[in-house]
């Protein structure tokens, strides 16, 4: 039995909130959670029969599911989420296309919600100092694809934090129509998103060309594509229901991270108290989750896989923790794309967003 340590972390006077997002940490390391049984509802039956009928982009290992391009290995997870995910009041879903700031948003939301038990400054045992943000906030598609969705999610105390790359259109109504579930969305200039995706993918696909991703992005068939549909789904939802969908942009977060932490805390129903404002707690959250801070932590320099027993076996794979921290800036696309490539992608996006009220430029 792994020890649960972090839930009993030091109480703080900074927030009177009752222990938000208690965190089950690695304890004795006996790894019992690694051998969890899969859910009875493990969606393996979809794996071959249904998936093989879906349109594919074999070069990128993608399938087109309900109009959205997703990794083939995620499809059973998405189906299981749509069929069986039972949200609880207070659930917070962090949504994003890949490589748009998910790791950062996970860290910020976790640090903000957990600050009652884990002060963002002066707590040497803070989970974010010891495990990668992806091990603090589970990724739904992969968890459910592994048949562990209900088991792991049910075991999490409320309020739960979870993440997805699913399009808004694909989310189950039980989330979308639930006034007690909140969604925080983050997107990013598609040029930087593609460069980030390319650099990340090349770790296991050295043959992959940036032009391959560009082609796919322009015709809508890149991972989580069509990008415009992904963004507009959440953009429109945030306009219709700003109290349940918060729309963030990576570039704006870089420009003014503290204001965005404050915005996030308010949206999550956990605004900083006057005493916290006085003590600069939003700044502490921002510092703890900054690119420089997280990138330089031992766990993110040398670690890999899942440091959380409840997620063990789900996040282990080809990508070491350091692969989630590359440049952490806006505009790196200019170092990798030709002006022509950039113009083409910009033009496609401009055309697709025309009249929507949203624009990346
Ligand atoms: P994921 O979809 O695999 O989870 P995600 O975290 O969304 O990846 O995106 C990774 C990008 O966020 C990387 O961008 P880059 O390749 O252009 O550098 C990564 O560096 C950046 N990133 C990770 N953590 C932070 C952070 N704390 N602050 C700012 N950017 C960050």
From TrEMBL:
Top-level division of the source organism's lineage: Eukaryota
Alphabetic keyword roster: Transferase
GO CC aspect terms: cytoplasm
Transferase found in the keyword field: yes
Keyword Protein transport: no
Residue span, Sulfotransferase domain: 91-355
EC code(s) of this entry: 2.8.2.-
Gene Ontology biological-process entries: sulfation
Top EC group: transferase
Gene Ontology molecular-function annotations: sulfotransferase activity
Family per similarity comment: Belongs to the sulfotransferase 1 family.
Protein name: Sulfotransferase
Source species of the chain: Setaria italica (Foxtail millet)
Gene name for this UniProt entry: LOC101753173
